Amino acid sequence: MQIYNTLSRKKEEFVPINPGKVGIYVCGPTVYGLIHIGNARPMIVFDTLRRYFEYKGYEVNYVSNFTDVDDKIINRANQENVAASYISEKYIEECKKDMEALNVKPATVHPQATLEIPDMIEMIKVLIEKGHAYEKNGTVYFRTRSFKDYGKLSHKNIDELESGHRDEEHSLKVSGEDEKEDFLDFVLWKPKKEGEPYWESPWGDGRPGWHLECSVMSKKYIGGTIDIHAGGEDLIFPHHENEIAQSEAANDTTFARYWMHNGFLKINNEKMSKSLGNFKTVRDITAQYDPQIIRFFMLQAQYRGPLNFSDEPIESAKNGLERILTAAEKLRDIIAKDNPDSDKDTEFIAELPKFTEKFEAAMDDDLNTADAITAIFDLVRYVNTTCNEDSSKSSAAAAYELLEKLTGVLGIKIDKAEDSLDSEVEALIEERQAARKAKDFAKADEIRDKLLSMGIELKDTREGVKWKRI
């Protein structure tokens, strides 16, 4: 498998540290509110990466954190006059609900920063002992220039960073607001403020810096060196750059071998922001569209490129997904007929591996889900042009098994058994069937229209009434 490594800026053959195993760390959300649609992109993309590694037979240790102590969480807690922990715990649970709706598998471990403070304090001690960090009045800073490779991920030159901030550095020092030795130094530990959560440390009561949290949690749950570190491209600098500096300075080993970053998501070609009034939470979007459509939409583009969220591509994704689900339903109907095998079965089944090969070739090329979906559409086209009601159960079952396997790698569900109707809808369908039997077609049409308004479309076939969500 080829992976585009942000560190080298080129595709590289993926070689795991331990054969047959892969450790993946993905930076998770800061939990102070409902996650937005931009948060959903890395969740879906890297969940798909995990699924593909599992499909290939790897044992995957997938770690994705929750940042549950942060200025935004504290501000939200103060606004609502509750403890910061109440806010973080509430929105961790809400985030998990949205992840489940999008069919994002729970991580092997979902570490929370506040539960790992002792290990963070230990890493700071190591950095101070090695001369990479220093304390000033209760704040501990990382001495950035002590790490000679600083800037290797973002490809930023440290001298250019310095010149770009010289005026700001001067104003901060004149005002007495900054006691750093160097403007480029960043915080590892910050002293407590009135009304904020804090933990005891050798440098006084306080809390860890954001960058430190991921370094400590990834080491604890994966190891000193990670196979793949992933996240949004907005995290490359300074977050991931700082993670590398403090981790490699403390552990004397490569922090991560491969770095993967997804591109930005825009709303109607504009950057999403509350000030523009286009801020969309996952909950907002899934109230309008089936979460499967959102997931399918996210995977129709190559993950490294920008993605524009608007009605037209979402409707296109909806139609594309419908083609796949309709083919799956067709295959289920043929399987239910239990037709005997025929001479055509061998020829039909012999063609199926080529769709698998095309799918895997796309996924092996830096997780090219767009081309992988094309391979699935090719399979759907083959089913639609080759299978009919006279096809054998064996042929249909082989095609269905493959379709289910490939869509499953993308996290798309095609098994109708996983979709159920509530009792009210089931009762209405039965009532309509009774009306049709009694030749009360006006009543039957009235019930059909009511179900349609509830998002349930009925189709009368020779095999009986079928339904689908719209």
Q: Any descriptors?
A:
about 475 residues; alpha/beta; 4-stranded parallel beta sheet; 4-stranded antiparallel beta sheet; 15 strands
Instruction: Report the strand count.
Output: 15
Query: What is the C-alpha radius of gyration, as a whole number of Å?
Result: 27 Å
Oligomer: single chain
- Counting helices, strands and paired strands, the structural category is alpha/beta
Rounded mean pLDDT is 92
User: How large is the count of helical segments?
Assistant: 17
Could you tell me how far the N terminus lies from the C terminus, measured between alpha carbons in angstroms? Answer: 37 Å
Reconstruct the topology from this structure.
Blueprint: E1 2-5, E2 10-13, E3 21-26, H1 37-55, E4 59-64, H2 71-80, H3 84-101, H4 117-129, E5 133-136, E6 139-142, H5 158-164, H6 166-175, E7 186-191, E8 206-208, H7 210-221, E9 226-232, H8 236-251, E10 256-262, E11 265-267, E12 270-271, H9 282-288, H10 291-299, E13 307-309, H11 311-337, H12 344-351, H13 353-364, H14 369-386, H15 393-409, H16 423-437, H17 441-453, E14 456-461, E15 464-469
Helix pairs in contact: 2-3, 4-7, 7-8, 10-11, 11-14, 11-15, 12-15, 13-14, 14-15, 16-17
